[in-house]
Amino acid sequence: MTLLDATTPEPGAPQPAPSTGASRKGWFGQFLLRLHFYAGIFIGPFILVAALSGALYALAPQVEQVVYAKELHAPTAEAYLPLAAQVEAANAYLNNAESPVAVRPAPKPGDTTRVMYAGENLGPSETRALFIDPATAEVRGDLTAYGSSGALPLRTWIDQLHSNLQLGEPGRLYSELAASWLGIIALAGLGLWITRFTRTNRKKDLLRPNSKAKGYRRLVSWHGSLGIWILVFVLFLSVTGITWSTYGGANVSGLRTALNWKTPSVSTNLTEAPQASGGEHSHHQAPSAPSTGAVDPAAFDTMLSIARGVNVNTGRVEIKPPTAEGKAWVVQEIQRSYPTEVDAVSINGQTLDVVDRVDFKDFNLASKLTRWGIDTHMGSMFGLPNQIILFLVASSIAAMVVLGYIMWWKRRPTKNPAQRMGNPPAGGALRRAPWWGTVLVLAVALGVGLFLPLMGISLAAFVLVDLILMGLRSKRKTLQPLT
Q1: Alpha carbon of 373 to those of 116, 308, 324, 379, 470: distances in Å?
Q2: Does 225 reside within a domain?
């Protein structure tokens, strides 16, 4: 929220009144300043919460390893039990009342196996996870896991604070506002920075904070230089954050579908797959399902063995039984760090034939970029370095919001001219713009507003607020309408 442009008088200097005959020159800079100002003031709280919760989430995986060390880890051993024995131990813990909906074998020595169950008291995307020592079949923990990342309660709480303020689906509107406007505010700030950079003789002061500056100028220096260094990361977080949003995210999905950029998924429909027995895995014996319809624990070993011979070659794997009659088993890699390993294979549980397979190397470029973007946003793509960068960027965004509000407070109108730190951003920029400038701005605003409806609605609200303030303060001539 850079509220000071190159033409702003020094603090305490006489403040000229806006000229009614202002030249068209510089209209775009004034428009950006006005947009940056209003968006920063009204959307700042949403961005601040998203940034602080995002910074916490960036460190959550490391904290999770400490808080849930008993559940996530087990003593290393010379020999390990088959998955069947581990699943049987988990079933016995639950008195054989349920069958697993997924199993995640221990990815490496010293880790536990997750045997996951559905439950009536669980929320969307939640499972009940039992953590099994793969050497002794000891149940080392019983926790609720969330989503494909398998986040445990602490990380889930932070994740939901970041995504919906712990308010469920209605709360997602806050994060959509933050993600939608974050990029707009950043781009407007970039435009203001470029304007100042081309006009000043002290360009280095815009590339790093001016340690000699005092008061308001010091705030401006920190706000502007910090913003330009993290700009690329801010735009990345904005774009990838929108993909999770309710309305903007739906439009992104629709666009990807229209352009045939959807992420491939493995087919589990047995009615469309060959039913002949035998084939490349005919040496495996198909495990028989109990008469109760429960999943035979031995099937998990069988399916994993088949998948290992097809395209599953990483330690982090999830095995899912059929979800209904006529469906196949699915064995999928869940390694989200680089290099990405998300290959998947579906298997006919009766014939042990491969029904379908999906390989990440065959994804189209858009699908790969989507996968990489999401995993980088969540901090899993490059591990700890990724998490540290996200923490620093999120903390910087929060600092910039705070700096912006301090700057706004210092610029607020007061009755004592000596205490005024500069006029509010001048309005009426579009009225001074050439016709093509007005058309271009309105066309871009309309296009972005249609693609990001919540941002479009809030932009209309800003204009309305501006008009109301203009009416209330017309005698003082301190505000003019944005349009």
Answers
A1: 27, 27, 32, 10, 42
A2: yes
The residue from 373, 404, 425 where one domain ends is 425
Residues 237 and 298 in one domain: no
pLDDT tens per residue, range 353-398: 999 999 999 999 999 999 999 999 999 999 999 999 999 999 999 9
User: Is 42 among the domain residues?
Assistant: yes
**Kind of pairing, strands 139-146 and 113-117?**
unpaired
Distances (CA, A) of 87 to 81, 313, 352, 475: 10, 22, 20, 76
Would you say 18 and 477 are in contact if contact means Cβ atoms under 8 Å apart? yes
* Number of compact structural domains in the chain: 3
- In this structure, is residue 464 part of a structural domain? no
Helices (H), 200-342: 215-229, 231-242, 247-258, 298-308
Query: Could you give the CA distance from residue 135 to residue 17 in angstroms, rounded to a whole number?
Result: 79
Question: Distance between CA 332 and CA 410 in Å, rounded?
Answer: 56
Is 448 a member of any domain?
A: no
**Global confidence as pTM:** 0.84
- Examine the fold and report which residue of 116, 150, 184 is the final residue of a domain before the chain moves on: 150
**Domain containing 102: what range?**
76-150
Torsion of CA 22, 26, 32, 34, to 10 degrees: -20
Edge-to-edge order in the sheet of strand 317-320: 139-146, 126-132, 113-117, 102-104, 317-320, 329-333, 344-347, 354-358
